[in-house]
Design a protein that fits this description.
Rossmann fold; 3 domains; globular; binds NADPH dihydro-nicotinamide-adenine-dinucleotide phosphate; binds (2Z)-2-iminopentanedioic acid
Length: about 450
């Protein structure tokens, strides 16, 4: 049996009931086959792939907190410190009822290669909890965040592990967590990114993932002889990534006609009103049903449906496995030319294969959404030098990083005879640097 198949079997046997983790590992290892085969003897002897798929450390802890009525709740907290070969662990914290160890491991595994692709010195990690911030008062969210950080603070630090936002974790949660870390550890340090501007945050971090997605998309279209200006786009999600993806897509001349949340989706034939979206989601923390009050000519539909709308460009920006084979077929039938992932692993393996087989340009999340973590690393740099850069300076660096990622994944795919396969290109380019660092540091 080939080394890749052997390790894939072991991962499934050793980590039962973690389908998302299996999926992420399968996608990466399958596309690394050529690289692994070229080094099979050495990699096997060094158990390189076994070390790559086994987190360096997994922390799981109890998070008790009291609601506004005096009732105690218990959630589970996680931090998976996956790989520190190229830098301190770096990656977000997801707060969503669906969170379990397998979800955090898939996200942490993806983060290793994503962080490597940024070219910045950050290792891979991820954390979170099955806590649901939706419908909670600010005080309840604070109570949860303080309890969560009381335990997490034992394992993180500016040079050890630097968490940030993800689904359900935004500026409010990062603020409460930062305050509690400082109070417990007594140090004022860049232990979290995505901080507010008044206490060490970076300009452009809020916009970074969505903007970065569009910088990469624009470049990808350009190297394939296409222009984003004038295209119609469908976006899923209506959170941090989706909002700034819509904003930048519009700035680049595309018309975005959809957004969604977990209850339903909006179709606005005149183009999404991004200021209305910000007010609904960032200020009022409301549902998308509110959108029609701002734009009476738009439609609201319950359930899923974004991928059924005719568009040149599809940008999934909500969550994992939200774009299925049937959706991919509809996109292709409607003449879609590119799918670029703002979320982590939003496209199923079958849908990805179908899109690629039908000539759709497909940029995987670990490349396309790397702008968020890249700008987090820029926030770390600013914290280290105790300076703040201007919006333009950060945005310019972000753009340069995304354009580089685009070319690096394109070049890596070409080097291995897989031109146009950006999944393989991103995985190979990310893997090469991590493996080089792992080899240099011995068996650890
Ligand atoms: P937010 O919490 O700000 O927004 C998430 C959005 O996705 C909401 O509209 C939410 O709807 C929707 N959503 C979440 N879970 C589901 C679900 N199970 N089914 C349907 N819709 C869902 O998160 P972000 O925008 O930060 O994150 C979105 C994606 O981008 C995630 O995959 C995240 O891992 C990834 N990402 C985020 C980065 C960042 O910097 N924030 C960086 C790189 C990737 P609802 O409000 O109804 O739950
Ligand atoms: O998935 C991701 O890259 C993030 N949620 C951002 C991580 C970070 O450390 O900024």
């Amino acid at each position: 049996m080939s080394y890749v198949d052997e390790v894939l079997e072991k991962v499934v046997a050793k980590n039962p009931a973690e389908p998302e983790f299996h999926q992420a590992v399968k996608e990466v290892l399958e596309s690394l086959r050529v690289v692994v085969e070229a080094n099979e003897e050495k990699f096997r002897r060094d158990a390189l792939l076994e070390r790559l798929v086994e987190p360096e450390r997994q922390i799981k802890f109890r998070v008790p907190w009291v609601d506004d009525k005096g009732q105690v709740h218990v959630n589970t907290g996680y931090r998976v410190q996956f790989n520190s070969a190229i830098g301190p662990y770096k990656g977000g914290l997801r707060l969503h009822p669906s969170v379990n160890l397998g979800i955090i491991k898939f996200l942490g595994f993806e983060q290793i290669f994503k962080n490597s692709l940024t070219g910045l010195p950050i290792g891979g990690g991820k954390g979170g909890s099955d806590f649901d911030p939706k419908g909670k008062s600010d005080r309840e969210v604070m109570a949860f965040c303080q309890s969560f950080m009381t335990e997490l603070s034992k394992y993180i630090g500016a040079d050890e592990d630097v968490p940030a936002g993800d689904i359900g974790t935004g500026a409010r949660e990062i603020g409460y967590m930062f305050g509690q870390y400082k109070r417990i550890r007594g140090t004022y340090e860049g232990v979290l990114t995505g901080k507010g501007l008044s206490y060490g945050g970076s300009l452009a971090r809020t916009e970074a993932t969505g903007y970065g997605l569009l910088y990469l998309t624009e470049e990808l279209l350009k190297i394939n002889g296409k222009d984003i200006n004038g295209m119609t786009a469908v976006v899923s999600g209506s959170g941090n990534v989706a909002i700034y993806a819509v904003e930048k897509a519009q700035q680049l001349g595309a018309k975005v006609v959809t957004v969604s949340d977990s209850n339903g989706w909006v179709y606005d034939p005149e183009g999404i009103d991004v200021e209305a979206l910000k007010e609904i989601k960032e200020v009022n923390r409301a549902r998308l049903t509110e959108y029609r009050k701002y734009r009476p000519n738009s439609e609201y539909h319950e359930g899923r449906g974004v991928w059924s709308v005719k568009a040149d460009l599809a940008l999934p920006c909500a969550t994992q496995n939200e774009l299925h084979l049937e959706d991919a077929k509809q996109l292709v039938a409607n003449g879609c030319v590119a799918v670029c992932e703002g979320a982590n692993m939003p496209t199923t393996l079958e849908a990805t294969e179908y899109l690629q087989a039908n000539g759709v340009l497909f940029a995987p999340g670990k490349a396309a959404n790397a702008g968020g973590v890249a700008t987090s690393a820029l926030e770390m740099s600013q914290n280290s030098e105790r300076l703040s850069w201007s919006f333009e300076e950060v945005d310019e660096k972000l753009k340069e990083i995304m354009v580089n990622i685009c070319h690096n994944m394109d070049d890596a795919a070409k080097r291995y005879g897989m031109e146009g396969n950006y999944v393989a290109g991103a995985n190979i380019a990310g893997f090469e640097k991590v493996v080089d660092a792992m080899n240099a540091q011995g068996i650890v």
